[in-house]
Task: inverse folding
């Protein structure tokens, strides 16, 4: 039977950690700012007719100035 020794276990842990970090980075995807998301939500609400043009402009101004 083959004995790994302490060095073998450490290297195996390093490779597993590297693999987990790579998977996490792939799954996480590129970051998006919350301002862009908020503006997209605002545009969608306007397109669905949930808010009128005045409300849209006021909210857009708040998003632009508040950040």
Result:
């Amino acid at each position: 039977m083959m004995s790994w020794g302490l060095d073998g276990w450490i290297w195996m842990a390093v490779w597993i950690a590297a693999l987990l970090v790579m998977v996490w980075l792939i799954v996480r995807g590129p970051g998006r700012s919350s301002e862009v998301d908020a503006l997209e939500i605002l545009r969608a609400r306007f397109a669905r007719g949930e808010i009128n043009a005045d409300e849209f402009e006021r909210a857009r101004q708040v998003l632009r100035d508040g950040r």
